[in-house]
## 1
Amino acid sequence: MRDPRALALALVPAAIVVVTSVFVQTFAGRYELLGAAYAPLLNAGVLLRAFGMFASVILVWGLLRSRGASRPVLALAILSGPVSYGITAALDALSYFPVGQAAYYGINPIAMATVAGQCAAAAVAEMAWRWWSRHRGREVGSPVTWRIAAAFGAGLLTVFFTVLYQGGVPFFYVYQRGYMFLFT
Amino acid sequence: MPIAGPPAQPSRRAFLAGLAATVGAVGVAACSEQTGGRPVAVPVTENGDGDHPNLVVIVSDDHRWDHVGYHPDHPAFLSTPNLDRLAEQGMVANNAFVTTALCSPSRGTFLSGQYASQHGVQNNLTAWNPNTQTFFEPLMAAGYDCAFIGKWHMPGQLPDLRGVDTFITFTAEEGQGQYVDCPLLINGEMTQRPGTYITDDLTDLALEWIDSRPPGKPYALWLAHKAVHHRFIPPERFRGALADADLSNLPPESFAFLSLMDENIWEGTLGNVHNLYRRYNETLLGLDDQVGRLLDAVDLADTYFVYTSDNGYSWGEHVLTGKRWAYEENTRVPFVAAGPGIEPDTTDAMILNADVAPTLLEWAGVQGLPAAQGRSVADVLTGGDAIREEFLYEYFPDYPYHVPGMQAVRDDRWLYVEYDRGRAPQLFDIVADPRTQDDVAGENPEVAADMAARLQALRERVAAGGVV
């Protein structure tokens, strides 16, 4: 990579997911150790982890764009959170299921939704960055284009149908049918 | 709302009636006392003659044992006056358990009296074997009118359930059903149910079915509710009823968003668990008043009435939501039975879901479920002695839930659990540590070894089809 700082920025979402995962796994149930801070810390931990999985690209997108990050680096920023979740989830699933099934776990509906969520978040961040850049007199194109709008809409719709619509139950059954097709 | 008439099955009924008569005659000659833990045989008539009591069983979903008003440790905000009324008239079992704390396997066990490893519905993905015999068959053969109303939720195609005149169930959401406007399959005909709430709707159908029974003919009603399974949608009349409830009863290891942990992420509880817990209890209020409607409709002088659940539910214990584990919150279920000869009381005797089918048959004075592995607890429910000191718990992996396969043995003091995939066994002292927080296997190696041996013996007995 030409810009190691950009690469590091692109990996921030992954770092959030990994650090919060370790924190939650380490301290969940340790209420005697954490005392009154137990519930607030654990709630913060799981919510921050969810943010890391679904939308954390929003933290780094503008910085990456300002640094002129390449498309692969921008793609890495979108995917590093979801992929780190998928990998840690698949590794965790090895405690419960054989290798093939654990690998399939890595592409579960939550994992799919995280990619979509990060795409939608990147679209929002791109709009904000363009608006901010234009405000500062830079020529970066319109903040709202059909591509950005499409990325935002498609991302939100995918999140909605995979995990929000009816509590994610219908898509969960689609995923389970895939499991049965592959493994039973 | 009219219920479609029973499907015509004259040849099967005639065959089963003849079979039952033969079984009954043989039973009278050969089984004048307890054999292999099975009920004492009594003469079986082709049609009910008034000596056969009616049977009503209500099985709810995910209703944990301590969330009933009559339980001494029930949440202060929860009131279940109708279940309490049933408890005041019947026997409350303080130690009722399921042999697998998961919907489909547990339902298979209720109906067949067999362990999940034997009836084959090992998780929510393995199909019901249509050759599995249920308690309905001998009941129908003995002249009972039989109805299955409510949640079937076992994988595979819906069976042409032998032994029932009326089969009402739902297929929405892979058999889980939906709380509002849930279409029902009524004797094979899909009917839309706009404007209905499922617990009320199923109770309406059950009451209509009871009302339409011919006089003098015994009946057996199985009413399996969706409530109080997720998505915990209470009826309109109870929405928000517990919005201000004090939830300090929740365990100290719980926290509002524990639903976002990988262990819980598939339990349908995404979001603030405290809100979901309130809705769970509001849904339970709706279930309770429908139990009351059914209780009002029967005469306990000639009807046995049972209320229980398919499994319990964790609300933060062990930082978990859901069921499946061998922990108390998952395996314990409410169990109340009232009816002829049952005096108001409580029993500490261990009762299993596998015992329900044999018990119903003994109450009916019917034999004919030879594969059942549970035992009749009819005597226990009239104050008799306990029939077992321990039981085998089994759980089979259910993709993608983060719960390992496990087998356990539990007695009055210890819970010993062996897990799949190389996890170390655990031992809990239930008396000293009722929340099963501390694994004491390392400090009690002799107890652990003894429990391991007992687990193995139980495992072998169940695998051989033996009675437990």
## 2
Amino acid sequence: MAERSIQKFDKKSSSGSGSETNWRSKIWSRCFAFDIVKQVGAILVMGCILGLAYNAANPIGIRWSESKVAQPPPKTAPASPVALLASTSSIPIVPPATGAVAQTTNRVGNQTTNATTYVPPSATTWEETKPLHLKKKCVLVDARSAPYFEAGHIPGAVNLPEPPDPQPWEAFIKQHAKSEHIVVYCSSTNCSLSFKLATRLAKDGGYEFVQFMTGGYQAWLRDESLAKADPATVVSNSPPPRITPREMPAQEVPPILPPVAGEMTGKKLENALPTTWLQARPLLGLGQAILVDSRPQAEFDLGHIPGAFSVPFDAPVPAIRQILADKGPATRIVVYCGSMGCPEAFQLATRLVRDLDYSNAQFMLEGYAEWRQLDQKAVKIPAPNGGGR
Amino acid sequence: MTSAAFNRWRTVLRWGVGLLMLWAAISKIANPMDFLGSIYSYQVPLPKTFLKALACALPWCELLCSLLLLANLWTSGALFCLDLMLLVFIIATGQAWLRGLHISCGCFDLNWMVIGSKTAALQRILESVAFAFFRNLGLWGIVSWLLYHNAEDATVKLVPEVASPIT
């Protein structure tokens, strides 16, 4: 066939009436002379077969049928968001420390101003949110843009793309009371839209109890696939035994920080999970967690949260091992960096999880700058042994 | 330019295109629902089932093409296939740009660089459809050039077989 093509090409080249014909025939011959069509056909067919087969086996793959959309959650709000969470979550929760809201009060020098206060959003997972959502005791908000929501979303979720346009934002504010429990999600662990929208809802919207769901829509997809494959493995929807802080002896009151996903699933995490200062503070106060500053040594020396260890985010593994020599792999480590949105805390916490097997390492969403604003004078954390210069 | 240097450049370009398409394919395969969302955001008047099938198959075609390019197997077929796909991408991004759609092109996973606020502006530029349109246009030019010369090579390789009886 190739020989025939070449002959045809030569024939066309020699007998072509003009340069244009020559050029065309040259391109045509070069492109189609050597079974390119067959190769292209084979690649496309193989791509289609592999793509469809992989999608069928992929728990987070594309769904051919639309998810049944549940009724929107009722407008009635729980009396106390913390009590609700304690009654429905499998994780014992205690209310934030006294004056949790006051922590956000803007302190300037010795004067406390009456700036608008808000409770920063906390992290949650689908395992925790699921029972609440099934009982319609929380409002699930999808922070992705409309086409992504249309492509697939958790049934019953409300779409409020981040950043929200004024009209849907006002409609959402009108529709949902400030005391409602809001859980915001986006695409996956990687995306930051849920945290941004959750902060906006708490700060600008005035919502009292806002959480952002790590794992996002992918976590729901995985869970739904698991439910279809083996219903027994799914998290039970029945409420766990209610444990209120008052019923527990004082010495058994657990800290507010919920267990990280690795503890609940028993699987090794790929990335560190986020936490907030509000969640980490009681643990640090009780000495049940250590604080790690991921900024460069020079910045650490200029100022840091009392009790923090200095572990620069790019420190080599042996150096980190040396600094954390007396800390076992189960130690809760809270990593922070310069300010909200800085990457070093996430990077170091993920290194601790992946490379050093500290499965309880988490990164703090707030950084040193926020701590200085919020809690500089309110907190007195005892310096841990061997660290916290 | 000597033919050896010319061939070296072509190999470098082929590897570059192969690695770029490999990255694009893997980031799409890793998060198919996000890719479907990106396709929906182009607002193309096509049936949803077709778009879903496209979201399933396209990343795998990209993956196959990139692996074939890297392995230098079926190179003409892989390049022609990429040429066709890039033409589709050019049309999609071009129409979105003309219509003024403020969407993310969904071509690559750029989440790794969005952690810091300093990179947010750069990420917005890299993910914009206007940038994607020109990038696809440039990539299409490179792939077409490689395809043309690759086919030429194949012709040259076969010429001795035809020409030997004459000489």
## 3
Amino acid sequence: MPKKLHKSRATMLIAWLVVIAIGGLLVWVTQHNARWYREPIVRVTQVQTRPGTTVEDDFHNQDVQTKQILTGKILNGQYAGKTIVLNNVYSRSKAMDQRYRVGSQLFVTLHHHHGDLSGTVKDLKRDGPLVLMLWVVVGLLLLIMQFSGFMAFLSVDLNGVLFLLAIFLNGSTQGARVLWIFGSLAIVFAALTLWLVLGPTRQMVITLATTLSGTALAILIALLVFHFTHEKGMYYEAMEYVTQLPRPLFLAETLLGSLGAVMDESTDIISSLFALKRERPELNAAQIFKSGRQIGSTIMGPLINVLFFIFVADTFPMGILYLRNGNSWGYTFAMNMSMGVVQSLISGIGIVLAVPLASFLASRLMTKKVTL
Amino acid sequence: MSTISVLGLVLLLLMALVGGKAGIQSFLALILNFGLLFLAMVLVAFQFPALTVTLVVGLLVLALTIFMSSGDDLSSTVAFIASAIVLVGLILVIVPVEHWAMAQGFGPEDSEDLEGLSVLVGVSFTQVAIATAILSTLGAIAEAAMAIAAGLGEILEQHPQVDTKSLLRDGIDVGKQIIGTTFNTLFFGFFGGFLALFIWFTGVHYSFGEILNDKVFVAEILMILFAMVSVILTVPITTWVMTRAVTGQRRHQAAVTAKKDEQK
């Protein structure tokens, strides 16, 4: 286990080398795992490029489309080892297409027709970069943070599994109870994560209470505002990938999105206050409340920013496409960014509310003498 | 009034009540960040080079977030320099991985949203994907750098003579404390946003292999992983910048006292 690593330089060097070697091995495996897939996979061995043609759309956007003739070897299935010729067209912008290179592995659909084997390209095989980046995260966590990194990763993993289970549950109820499912999931998420970080302590109970009440209050305030403004300027049709009733889904997304940040904020404030009380047990509740407010108000701004960039940056490509398609700035904002902004504002409210909540609960519920 | 303005007013009111002047300043920083993000989008749409725009806007966002929410002292300067280094390092990771994964632009899941839109618009969506990944992690980098720098600043205040070697260890220790909760912020932040997509995958019965290689899925997961890498890297880099700053300060102080002694 990496937590048992000694601090000496040689062991650290070996640890780094081992991590890099495992990373290389994993990437090698993803380049040779075609047999694990049922869909036929082709490795491109030769690329011929035809001269490009310039195209122009209704908005005078110019682009160049180029045809590639790809020669490749089928890697799996009943035609494994056979050579196949495929056509591909890519554009300079590559919004919906790809420019393939020698060595690219592609999913194809094969057509067998009177002894001739032909095929069409479906998509690129992308498990390589995915596995590499995943390993970079795990490797860096273990090398730099050691045991704490392992625990952080474990908690993200457990939450990921719960998240998947909840999605399957949502699917089996046809999305009718999405808010209930993810609302209860939020409680389980928060309890599990805080238990992993803090253990079954009084501090954990206070942090959990703050997290849940902060998030719930933010959603309540949002619902009130929705009610009085009649959701003016909110475009549920602008949400992406929606396959069920959008409004509860939007609330569930917002609830989950804010939960982590509210938990982050509460954990920071409450652990600082517990440390403060340990150092200076003579402080009374009012003083504790005041320091809590002070600590909280310096971290709330950056935390709201974290979520804002996550929620809104995601709409960047679609926003650019809207602008290039002759839409006004206002319409582009409304159709792409408005829902993300609403989500950031609601989670912002939750993050700010966590400050007085955490300070109040900690100042009242901390026992007179705080022990480790 | 629209929902956004009322929610914005509620947030402003709460931030002012809880944080006073600093709270209002943080709110202002948030508005300015939104302006910068929108400006970046418009500039890229006007075919300015996406990477340059992102780098400039990124540095501005980091400066705004860090200096407007905690004033101008040693730890904010350290946090800013460190986050700028992380930003550049992140670009070095993102560019090759995005070129390899080719997860730019839109996938078949987007076809409904793309109806009536021309996708051959002459803007490189590979560059746009790189810009998106960088922009989405800016908040996390700033937050982590500030937390580490503030933690180290506190240690320096209590033990002004701490040597740089133990300061390095302290930085990693502070990092260990924040990494768990920061990862959760990222996890929930991103997964909250992807909820609809994941429901789509299970509803349309994609196979496991199809999901793992799906363009939109890979693009989204890569964004989380980039954000996580940047937060992890922020810990040692901020600590390193802090030790450099402290060493420089001490050398400067030593020179000043030496000079004073000479004059005596």
